[in-house]
Amino acid sequence: MALFRRSSQQVAVSAATRRTAKDLRLGESGTICCLEDPEMALKLLEMGCVPGVKVRLSGRAPLGDPLMLVLGDQEYTLSVRANEAATILLKE
Amino acid sequence: MAAILSNPSAAEAVALQTGPAAGARPMRIALIGNPNSGKTSLFNQLTGLNQKVGNFPGVTVDRKSGFAQLTATQRAEIVDLPGTYSLYPKSLDEKVITDLLYDKTSASYPDFVVVTVDANNLRRSLLLFTQLGDLGLPAVLALNMMDVAERHGVNIDLPALERELGVPIIPMNARKGIGVAALKIVMAQRLDAPPVRCWQPDEKLLPLVRQIRYYFDLHNDYLALHYAQQFRQIGFLSADDKAYLQELTQKYGFDATAQQASETIARYARINEILLETVTVTRTETREPVSNRIDRVLTHRVGGYLIFLAILFLLFQAIFAWAQYPMDWIDQGISALSATIQENFHGPLIRLLTEGVLAGLGGVLIFIPQIALLFGFLAILEETGYMARVTFLMDKLMRPFGLSGKSVVPLISGLACAVPAIMGARTIESWKDRMITIFVTPLMSCSARIPVYTVLVALVVPDEAAWGIFNLRGVALMSLYLLGLFSALASAWVLKKVLKARERSYFIMEFPVYQWPRWKNVGLTIYQKVQAFVLQAGKVIVAISVLLWVLASYGPGQRQEEAVSQLMVRQNIGFSSPQAMARYNQEHPEYKEDLARRVASARLENSYAGTFGHLIEPAIRPLGYDWKIGIALLTSFAAREVFVGTISTIYSVGQDADMGTLQQKLSAEKDANGQPFFTPARAFSLLVFYVFAMQCMSTLAVTYRETKSWKWPLAQLLYMTGLAYVAAFAVYQVLS
């Protein structure tokens, strides 16, 4: 039982250190730190998901996926699937 | 050579001068830009109605081009390229761009490009622009949506930006046509390649890049790098060239993904520097953009779906109810024309013209109202930006079936006609998603099935109310549509398990800002789609109609003549003399008409088509069909709606008779035991057959064009026909 609790805590800690765009709460903003998946990164970069840019979760599709992300100050909106958003790492 | 090696820009200058020939032919200008950057508006402003849609060579992506009058004496050809975010193509549409811009020797290589840039999205738009500049293409920057940028407090120092980028910049508002005149003046001048390079390949890449550059005799290092990046997808390279590049990139250990990522990041860094010096934002309003507030309603977890359903309902209403009036006019017009010709002229050629060509042409023209309405609707949904929200709403629902949110648009369009729907699947980047979408779209009940459904349902389903509110016939009709939808989804699920994915599926997509549709664009879309349909599908349908007419009108040897004379002999019994028969005929015109119908029926039975019907009868007997239905199955292979016309002829109903008499004839048809032939079992078996069967030449042709292989249309044909056969067999055996 103790082992189980400890391991679940570890998961929680590692999840907290690796916050991604998927973990944003509705309306919350973060800054892009880096992109994890090289292949996906190419597409995301082209669409303006560049490290250092601000990203805000502005909505979710009715079934929770895909997500609606607003990028930068220039306010344009991207739609990405949750698993794609999970490759966008955020700065602390 | 050494001098050139050490000074690539000198070589570029030489290459540019020997580039596209100046003088005789009008300039060719390509229009390129991000999706939603106002490229289409600008294209329409420049060319007006003076445009045409063709195909890019080798692929079937629409090539929109037109002529613009730049000055009183100078005309230029404008080519509208698909919207893209970079020169690294992801979808089939985007590959057209690289094929066009990488081959300088190509006849359609542009003299220069006009890059449309959204002033509100400068950073991302400039990524594409700097790539084009680095390719050494002369360019003009059309800085669009200046009005919105000004409202948002974005101030752009245009002279400074022109200096940094090294190209002329024209501020504009393409929707309203502001800035178009200034753009035309700049376009009328022959431009040089921009002197500024935003990014150069890294030193470490130079050995590889230079080797490619001199092997292919390219004018530019960056272009050589793109060869290394994308040689697998470049259409004009030969297999030997590709093998050479494969070997070379392997030898140098070239990592395409890493290189592309570092290039993109380096470009953004440079763009940020430029923007820091040239753009200031004094954001006055902090109010949330209107678009976001609309989104909260249209993508609401309950409301979003309800609104989508309401829009779908409206679409159906338009296609099935409103389109009926113009369709009737076309039908009557063609019949009247045909009748007039037949009254005044005679002979086999006239019959070929009226019963073959005109009937086939009528079969094409009658779909114009539905196609126009469908594309009008879809264009409005696309223009307003709502379509992107539909894919967003539906993505999660479609994924378990191996489809993506982007498959929704082709599937919905498939309810009107599978041909444009399959073409609409081009926007799906993932190969697997796209193939599944193309494969299952013909299972959606298209408008050509409506006549078949209507006739057969009315025959066996009583016109009564069920549970007080629903009309039984309406319920039956809706069940057929649902059956089509579920079979499409189930087939997609099966295909998802079968197909090996070569690439992963993406769903990264920009939400366009909501805006009012530009009616001119909607009108142009309708006009172009109808034109493409009439010309492309029309050719096939008319050809098949003529062929079928011949098969149904002529028979092997003397069989038709013998059958008719036998019939006449039987008719003549009972009359004392030919004069008595003639008198009787005169007094009873309906008897003469009836005789004519029976003669037609006998001729058909003994024609090539009729012979074929008898031939396949053993195969379709388990489904409950006889040779007459066999002929209808054969003729309606060209197009489903031919079914009704064929059975009208077979059951010896004159072509001008209305549906009521056809119904009566069908009900009156008796089987060998004197019982009504069209039992519910037979009718439902036929209905289910038509839900599934691939009875459409045009769809097969378009699947071939879109997949560039006979494998897919053949698989579609075998799968759908097999499914139809098994399902119809099951229905007939269970019900009878």
From TrEMBL, chain A:
Listed InterPro entries: Fe-transptr_FeoA-like, FeoA, FeoA_core_dom, Transcriptional_repressor_C
Keywords for the protein's UniProt record, in alphabetical order: Iron
Superkingdom per UniProt: Bacteria
KW Iron (keyword) present: yes
Signal peptide: none
The UniProt record lists the keyword Iron: yes
Pfam families, sorted: FeoA
SMART domains from the UniProt entry: FeoA
Residue ranges annotated for the Ferrous iron transporter FeoA-like domain, each copy included: 19-92
Name of this protein: Ferrous iron transport protein A
